[in-house]
Amino acid sequence: MKILVLNCGSSSVKFQVIETSVEMIAANADRTLARGSVEKIGLSDSRLSLEVPGRKPYQEISEILEHRTAVERVLRVLCHPEHGVISSVAEIEAVGHRVVHGGEKFASSVLVTPEVEAGIEECVVLAPLHNPHNLRGLHAAKELLGNVPHVAVFDTAFHQSMPPRAFIYGLPYQLYRRHGIRRYGFHGTSHRFVAIHTARLLGRPLEETKIVTCHLGNGCSMAAVDRGHSVDTSMGFTPLEGLLMGTRAGDIDPAVLPWVMAMEELTLAQLNAMLNKHSGLYGVSGVSSDMREVLQARAEGNARADLAFQIFCYRVRKYLGAYAAAMEGIDAVTFTGGIGENSPEVREACLTGLEFLGIELDTEANRNVPRGEEVLVNKPGSRVAVAVIPTNEERVIARDTVRVLAGIMPSFAVPGNEAPR
Amino acid sequence: MSATELHHIAVVGGGMMGRSIATRVSQAGLSLVLKEINENRAAQVMGILEDSLERQIERWQLTKSEKKAILSRIEPTTDIQRIRDCQLVIETIQEDFEAKRALLHELDAVAGPQVPIIVNTSTLSITELAQGLANPERVLGMHFLYPVTTQPVVEVVRGQVTSDAAFELARTFARILGKVPIEVFESPGFVTTRVILPLINEAIHVVMEGVASAAEVDLAMKLGYEFRTGPLEWADRVGLQKILTWLEYLFQETGDPKFRPCPLLRKLVRAGHTGAAKGKGFFTYDAARNRLDRLPDDTPRVA
Description:
- The structure holds 2 protein chains of 2 kinds.
- By secondary structure, chain A is an alpha/beta fold.
- In chain A, about 35% of the residues lie in helices and about 20% in strands.
- Chain A contains 16 helices and 14 strands.
- Chain A has helices at about 20-25, 65-80, 115-120, 130-145, 165, 175-180, 190-200, 255-265, 270-275, 280-285, 290-300, 305-325, 335-340, 345-350, 365, 395-405, and strands at about 1-10, 15-20, 30-40, 45-50, 60-65, 90-100, 110, 150-155, 210-215, 220-225, 230-235, 330-335, 375, 385-390.
- In chain A, a hairpin with a 6-residue loop joins β4 (about 45-50) and β5.
- The longest helix of chain A is centred in the C-terminal third of the chain and has 24 residues, at about 305-325.
- Chain A is globular and about 55 Å long.
- The two termini of chain A are about 45 Å apart.
- By secondary structure, chain B is of the alpha/beta class.
- Chain B is built from 11 helices and 8 strands.
- Chain B has helices spanning about 15-25, 40-60, 65-70, 95-110, 125-130, 165-175, 190-210, 215-225, 230-240, 240-255, 265-270; strands at about 10, 30-35, 75, 90, 115-120, 140-145, 155-160, 180-185.
- An 8-stranded mixed β-sheet of chain B has the order 3-2-1-4-5-6-7-8, sandwiched between helices.
- In chain B, β6 and β7 form a beta hairpin.
- Chain B is globular and about 55 Å long.
């Protein structure tokens, strides 16, 4: 069946049309028919782009002021006799939606019902910058596509398997009860996808494998995937915790925050912007939030760029060690995301010297990873496998849509892992 | 009109308030024309606006790409006709009744008849200003507090004949800007100005009577009542000329002696010591308006 996948941000809509089915999932044979995006929604020069395999990319610039219009244009271009890939919207049998935050409510991908919509609405308070846009896309698609089923796929759901010792912070317990302050974790769709594909690449059942997955992109997080379940992850209540990222600080001593606010006379908004937009690779290096530019500056002898690079990789190593201990063992380390897939320097710096853990990187193979392919870059005989797996969150969303409709979507919740009331 | 349909507006006047409003409007994703009286002034205004964005970057409030996006949505113009296709017009020229009235007549003639015209004022009567216009019901007041980029509140002021439609759109507009609208009926000084002015005026009296130094008055109020800025430094930052004008206006309107400007305020204004922008008021400031003469106890408190 043909599934439309929608990922709506504040001023953008990303989409894919994916042909998949229960059989195609089993054979790993699902196909992307088209992918594209609408950028700069709300402006007079919004850009819609469409890529169809084997064709020249197509673009149109026009005024698109809101998400509904954006989704409308996407459907129109998909049905276009020359540029499109379907003859009418009736060919779209279901829509899969990315939703950032599902809180503790959603431990699985679900069919959108009025109750589910209300649940997503309740989670707006946890992700005020994301869930409202996801909802906007959902409403637009429901309005424009009539009666097809809609499925919501949450970034947080995969991590709902974590035990309370991993997700409860050492704060007064009332804060968890009153405000849901706990670790939720993000990038769940990506961690899940690359864990499954790592096991497949190793030719081992996922249920018998301990994998540390590293999603290193603009946002970065790691997860300990123990026999298919996320048992810990580095992002927390928000996507700010954990690793150093492009412009995000990651782990810091929380006592620094009131101190900096007082000394610099900052408002809460300024503090938030500082932690989210002015820190990380950019804040430390002063060069860029883009790892490629940081690497370039480092190669030219920029000491702070080198430091930013080192902090970045050092944090990955710390979490790697922690997660190996948390799972009482490790069978594979997997890199994904823009940096994880494309930076041999980062992978090498993260793993060098970890032979004691059984990780032996094949530096030659690591430097020659073919773009877009799933490969192993460990030495033959390395106790721990090292994999590079291009992530594909849209494909997971399409597959989950099929699974939900077929009634075979599992829940990620692990019985017994509920926090005490 | 719903929030998503409001996307192009006009700001008339590029003074401190106009620039701050323009920045906030653009930050919220709306595009706008910023009307000034001549090319020179328009270019100057855009220059100052850019500098202030640069200062916000230094304070971690904005990123370089956000600055670029903000500037890309602001179009300076000198042509009043450019407001013809705007969905809302805000004037932000000086707090002068006759000047504002003359401008409103011009705006009323050019803007579409349903388009709300918002007067940015802290004291003037909306009803009086709108008298004699072809469409007085679309005129209302919004009193933004400075800096508009971070202040969370705005007073939305109904005149006697302001229509519900115009008022509702103004409230929607406030929400788009991320502000809490406080609904007020027309009355001199509305809420915020009327309540803060006697406090400032009293603080000046305390200094004049020699009860305590300006620095100690401010520090006592800051620590005692958790003000981010003491009342006198706050007055310096707004500008003492402006404080004097407001007080005189409220005194004249209400006849209430609590608004009679303290003689020390007049004295400072006459001497040209009008506040942070001039480097001297109750306190002294450097060119970037950082206060130079803080007391040793007036330091950030962590615990």
